[in-house]
Amino acid sequence: MDFDERPYQVEKTEYSSKYKLELWETAFGLQKTDGLVPSEYMVEQAQAHIDGKTSYQEIEKNVKAYYSTNESEEQKRFEEADISSLRISQILAEEGFSLSPVTLLNYHKRLFYGIESFRYPVGQYRKENITKAEPVLNGKSVEYANATMIADNLAYDFDIEKNRDYSGMNKHDIANQVMKFVSGIWQTYPFREGNTRTSAVFLIKYLRHMGFEVNNKPFKNNSKFFRDALVLSNAATTSKYRTDEYLNKFVDNLLFDGKHELVIKIFKDKKD
């Protein structure tokens, strides 16, 4: 019997300083979707990692120790941004991806597990029906999925995506379809909190899996725009605000060197 003698290769764990900087900038930028910013301490830890002086594991240990001895509300307000930024950077640095709802659950759990200030279930679908007034919808809410339908909705969407034939599509159409798929995941709003950051990580990983090179600058500089674009794309079908224009501009900047100004104009004179 013949055996394949080619050895398995250990996954790469060290990257260039430039690449690590991009990952951290993306992670920090995504915190803006929830109005969060990292602490100065976390920025220093990230720089040490970029300079090759420390590892993700060492940073995790340092940050946990830091927050266990700094329990003031002033310090705790940075905890979620610091720890979830670390986990975002770490996940984005990893190879491998699986197109599955389990992956989505895993990303959410990894991003927010053990964060004391994140007072919501992690790696679990929400059990409440929710609404949120959105400024870009003039105070109205996206119609999120009913909590009892989340698992079924995701199973249906993932099944369609797994069986989608991309062979006859050009790169722009593929990219827009992937974004549409992830936008649908976001509209389902599987988790009580942390959906945009989880969806963004999933999107980046999926796009890379599909062979795209992702420009991290839009997430670094325009993550709030990304969330607002998702809101507008998933407004009620009868809403005059509903549009994919901004989401498509984001994709073009993200993948195809687009130069769109990522600014959303709110037309408050419109009435639903």
UniProtKB/TrEMBL annotation:
It catalyses: L-tyrosyl-[protein] + ATP = O-(5'-adenylyl)-L-tyrosyl-[protein] + diphosphate; L-threonyl-[protein] + ATP = 3-O-(5'-adenylyl)-L-threonyl-[protein] + diphosphate. Its EC number is 2.7.7.108. Keywords: ATP-binding, Nucleotide-binding, Nucleotidyltransferase, Transferase. InterPro entries: Fido, Fido-like_dom_sf, VbhA-like. Residues 99-253 form the Fido domain. This is protein adenylyltransferase. It comes from Lactococcus nasutitermitis.
